Amino acid sequence: MRFLEVEGWGDKGRIVHGFGLRGPAGGEKTKQDWRGQRLRMGEEVFPLISTRQVHGDGVVVFGGQTQKPEELWLREGDALVTQVPGYALGVFTADCLPILLFDPVQGAVGIVHTGWRGTARGICQKTLKKMAETFDTIIENIHVAMGPCIGPCCYEVDGPVKEVFKAAGLPWEHLSSPRGGGKWFLDLPRANAYLLKGAGVREENIQHLEFCTSCRRDSFNSYRAEGKTSGRQLSFIALRKGEAI
Q1: In a domain, 56, yes or no
Q2: Label partner for 36 (CA 20 to 30 A): which of 127, 160, 172, 234?
Q3: Measured distance CA(206)–CA(211) in Å, rounded
Q4: Residue 188: CB partners within 8 Å, gap ≥ 6?
Q5: What is the domain extent for residue 39?
Q6: Distance between CA 40 and CA 7 in Å, rounded?
Q7: Is residue 245, in this structure, part of any structural domain at all?
Q8: How is the chain split among helix, strand and coil, in percent rounded to 5?
Q9: Residue 244 domain flag
Q10: Which of 227, 219, 200 is nearest to 149 (CA)?
């Protein structure tokens, strides 16, 4: 699988990260294909860790020691955080938004999978809170990279989604545009940037690779455009071994 990177992101050299592109025709990767696999990035190899994504707001901490990475694949959660080097934290998307988090001061990383449900539940804020509680992260120090997802040009939602967002206190009019007929286009990256900034992340520390997965099916899998047979993109972040905090 090929990966996109955010130029000049983070603390240069302490982390490895990537947002996956779709494979060649006939070679689509599913999440199951990746289970138990290792990512090879140049000369480095990282065991891949993920969870059972359920469009919720659960945050899982990987602390190494007695935790077995293969067991986490069965555990429900849509975000992962760690301070353990040498492992790649991964999420799988096909329109949802992947978010990478890096604390260069405490040497901690996190990854989030979020669609409209996770966004309304504030999963990105809950992940930041978990990093603060677990690693003494100061949220102002966090660097954020948001990957490709379905864009506001294509992400059509209906009245029940609007009501969930408004009930959560999210500024619907700022995050959506009316399509007519009781439908709206939702801006998922803008909604999560709003939540991240509201939690204390500096605006200048947030970057976004602005590709719409539905428009760019030459490069990305899209559940909305392709249905249940769509493959999945892997996004990941890892701390390198041997890098001092």
Answers
A1: yes
A2: 127
A3: 16
A4: 96, 97, 114, 115, 116, 119, 149, 150, 152, 155
A5: 3-239
A6: 20
A7: no
A8: 25, 30, 45
A9: no
A10: 219
Per-residue pLDDT reduced to its tens digit, 127-140 = 999 999 999 999 99
- Give the tens place of pLDDT for each residue, 44-79: 999 999 999 999 999 999 998 777 888 899 999 999
Q: Give the contacts of 176 (CB within 8 A, at least 6 positions apart).
A: 152, 157, 162, 165, 184, 185, 186, 187
| Model pTM score | 0.94
- DSSP-derived secondary structure for 123-151: HHHHHHHHHHHHH---GGG-EEEE--B--
Residue 139 lies inside a defined structural domain of this protein: yes
Query: How many residues does the structure list for the chain?
Result: 245
Count structural domains, the chain.
Answer: 1
As to burial, measured by CB atoms within 10 angstroms (0-12 exposed, 13-18 middle, 19+ buried), residue 69 is middle
Mean pLDDT of 84-111: 96
Helices (H), 74-203: 116-120, 123-135, 159-167, 172-175, 188-199
Q: Report the greatest alpha carbon distance in the chain.
A: 56
171 has a pLDDT exceeding 80: yes
